[in-house]
């Protein structure tokens, strides 16, 4: 005959709680596994988060058709495997230069055009002469963007970072050192846009960027 005891009651209660909680834990784990990549990284033995990130990025580069979508990955500070894959993919696109030129020409509509400054400060293009006028035009967009950011009371000095202003002069010296058709004039316009900022919280940032444009 089974005799109920305090210990057996406790054990029974514990088992009952476990039987109720376990399915919920399993269900939650499965949901996170299915929907959130970082959980798969944590639970996947022998595969680091960095390795997972590289794998995912390489796949994105592989399927991308728009050069601007992967231009960021050519930055030298990225993992070497990612940089090489992005550069190889870009060079394999027949009209890759035309895509960059178009983005510069339509800078008022393309928010990612400033990534081209970073790219041009590191990599040479096959036809730099075709980039001169679009590059000159894009600097007017930069000047307008500077004013827009500075005139917005909700922005901070760091909002200027995405314009890659510090790379403009580097790109000019690297790509167009023998071409000065309007480059200096529009670079002056960018400098004036920075100088015109009246906000005190921008003083240090503006000073730093002006040094980069000298």
Could you explain the architecture of this structure?
- The protein is an all-alpha fold.
- The chain has a domain at about 65-210.
- Helices cover about 65% and strands about 0% of the residues.
- The chain is built from 11 helices and no strands.
- The chain has helices at about 5-35, 35-45, 50-65, 65-70, 80-90, 95-105, 115-120, 130-150, 170-175, 185-195, 205-210.
- Helix 1 (about 5-35) packs across helix 2, helix 3 (about 50-65) runs parallel beside helix 5 (about 80-90) and helix 6 (about 95-105) packs across helix 8 (about 130-150).
- The longest helix has 30 residues, at about 5-35.
- It is globular and about 50 Å long.
- The N and C termini lie far apart (about 95 Å).
What structural class should be given to the helix and strand makeup? Answer: mainly alpha
Poorly predicted spans: 1-6, 30-41
Average pLDDT figure: 85
- Number of helix segments? 11
Q: What percentage of the residues does DSSP assign to strands (E)?
A: under 5%
Number of strands: 0
Q: Characterize the largest beta sheet: strand count, sense, and whether it forms a barrel.
A: none
Q: What is the CA-atom radius of gyration, in angstroms?
A: 27 Å
- Shape call: globular
* Run of helices and strands: HHHHHHHHHHH
First and last CA, distance: 95 Å
- Portion in helices: 55-70%
Describe the structure using short key phrases.
0% strand; 11 helices; single chain; 214 residues; mainly alpha; 63% helix; disordered N terminus; globular
Task: Describe the protein's topology.
Layout: H1 6-35, H2 37-43, H3 49-63, H4 67-70, H5 80-92, H6 96-105, H7 115-120, H8 132-150, H9 168-175, H10 183-195, H11 203-212
Helix pairs in contact: 1-2, 3-5, 6-8, 8-10
